[in-house]
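Look at one record.

>
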Amino acid sequence: MPSTIWSGAISFGLVTIPCKVVGATEDHSIRFHQVHLEDMGRVRTRKVCEIDGEVVPQEDIGKGYELTKDETVPITDAELDQMPLPTAKAIEIVAFVDANTIDPVRIGDSYYLAIDGQVAAKPYTLLRKALERSDKVAIAKFAWHNRERLGLLRVRDNAIVLHAMRWPDEIRDPAELAPKKTELDEDEIEQAVQLADSMTIDDISGFRDAYRDALEELIEAKTEGKEAPQPTEGKAQQPSQVVDLMAALSASVQRAKESRGETDDHATVHEMKPRKKTAAKKTTKKKAPAKKAAAKKTDSKKAAGRKPRTA
């Protein structure tokens, strides 16, 4: 069982649910120390005062808010603890919303909420059932580290999950990053959709961190005094300028199918649904040859019906 990060209670109307917060995720990244390459001694970061140049011990380090370059206001932990935070010991549910109304960019770290004592089992299960039956998620306020935060509560495998959320004013507007209006052919869109379909899978649990695996092999080899493993053959795909978008999409569909073990010699879809305008143009063009053919048949019949002239 992971260590408890925070303990308090979920406030659900007049219902109180004693709970503990534990991490829902683990970081398996391989981390390195900074070392002196000459003797492999650790290189550590020292906290030095800018004024006297002395190293400052942790017990002498406090918080300060910079008003100007030359003026800083000190703020003590005791003053922060006295701040009025009604959510300091409670995860207060303030609303319920449909899950699809939450912008994923606002969702941050995830935590599991566990009951704190058997007395919390019944109200915990009650909240879980309410979330499941309503198909909604709960929006809550809570305070950690002297800061009020916004959170989202949902159900995952019979457990209630707390997702930290960003406040609305913390999300940057992406409008300036969007590309300018670009003309796209309907066939190109259909081909891109087909590529997405060919790459669709039902389960992503099989994905692995290939870089971490290779790094573990490198560390193991160097620890045992062996040569570093050679990289696998094949060059990394380099980004290139797309000359023919349809050709690139078609090749991508073919490659996706081959990776899934599907045999299809004709990856390009020939039966595309044409746009209405395009269909109208094609119909107009086809009518003209039909009239000419009909006219030729009429002339032939007239010629056949004429009697040959006698000298």
The helical segments are 77-81, 121-134, 186-198, 210-223, 245-259, 276-305. The CA atoms of residues 298 and 304 lie 10 Å apart. The longest helix spans residues 276-305. Confidence is low (pLDDT under 50) at residues 266-298, 300-311.
